[in-house]
Amino acid sequence: MRAPLPTHHNVVVVGGGQAGLSASYHLRRHGIDHVVFEKNRIAHTWRSQRWDAFCLVTPNWQCLLPDFPYTGPEPRGFMPRDEIVAYVEAFARSIDAPIREGVAVTRIARGEEGFLVETSEGGVTADAVILAVSAYHVPNIPAMTANVPEGIVQIHSSAYKNPAQLPPGKVLVVGSGQSGCQIAEDLHLADRPVHLVVGSAPRCPRFYRGRDAVEWLDDLGQYEITVEEHPLGEKVRRNANHYLTGRGGGRDIDLRRFASEGMVLHGRLTGIENGRLEFGDDLARNLDAADAVYNGICGLIDRHIADKGISAPEGVHYSPVWQPGAAVHSLDLAAAGIASIVWSTGFRSDWSWVDLPFLDETGYPAHRRGVTNEDGLYVVGMPWLWTWGSGRFLSVGRDAGFVVDHLADRQITGRRRPPVRMAV
């Protein structure tokens, strides 16, 4: 039986993944009393919302949690799901995080002196709150799922585990971001016939000119570009991630090659009616755009090699191995033999439990580098919180350090800071 919940903490951290644990590390470094609430278990998302063959798409050497870098035998490898969970759990043990697993935070509001935090084990007060729950809270299920005929199995990508989970027959994967492409590949490698709905996500080379492209991009400083320096500004936070994989030691994901091997590709899904799928006329355009990003990255690396006089093997830019024929605008689910659909349509945010006016007009936390416009409220662990590496093991610890340093300075000065000016 664990100790009862104290009634007050200097800081409440919500979320027991790598972001919340990194915040805990830095709070301990400052000697600040705190608690970490995790409604499930440490590393819950890695544990429960990833498929069996899942592995990192970034190399292990980028796993740089505070004072806890990857030290295994394969720094250029890609940890599979269970090793990722073990890495996060080991980090929690190493810092002796004051985590309360199985405690859900149900409401956060202002109190007389700080914050009121309601949980499944009772209420506490806090001087400051760090929200370390990313921005991916609820599976995004399109309304058109209601029009899918009965008898066809439908699951969200977060619930997909392996090909054997789905009934015999063809599988439709909707969405070609990282998860959709990797799940389509997982099914394809298991000789399951796949239809894939292709969106606008870009792709990236895995290896180019003798090295992992991530290593080249790191040398180029791409992971250090801040939101304020990026040409898109805060809009970059809405960009889809590039698709590639760390599976089997790492490789490209080439949807055209999959198509040449029998996978059926479609343009964007625009509707479902009377058992028929309706597609947009954008398949060729989406494939071309993804390849253009791929070759653009190759070109960026080429220029870096030339400018620095680096000795490296010659590189070859991608040339399409397959071209789509006449666009298919409609497909009958029954006639096509599609027995299941995997909706790889991402997630949406749900901040309804935070009873504070900290969101912008789009429903995204208004913040600068994790410091929100609500004094004492912080966010960490979100994609592009500050840099491209913010949502990854690479930079989440540094982001947490900045947030906690700001918080510690606020407590030391004994005064409330004015809201941080938001970037335009």
UniProtKB/TrEMBL annotation:
Highest taxon of source: Bacteria
Molecular function via GO: flavin adenine dinucleotide binding; monooxygenase activity
Keyword Oxidoreductase: yes
Keywords linked to the UniProt accession: Oxidoreductase
Gene3D superfamilies per the UniProt record, alphabetical: FAD/NAD(P)-binding domain
Pfam families: Pyr_redox_3 (PF13738)
PANTHER family in alphabetical order: FLAVIN-BINDING MONOOXYGENASE-LIKE PROTEIN (AFU_ORTHOLOGUE AFUA_4G09220), FLAVIN-CONTAINING MONOOXYGENASE
NCBIfam families: MSMEG_0569_nitr
Protein name in UniProt: MSMEG_0569 family flavin-dependent oxidoreductase
Protein source organism: Labrys okinawensis
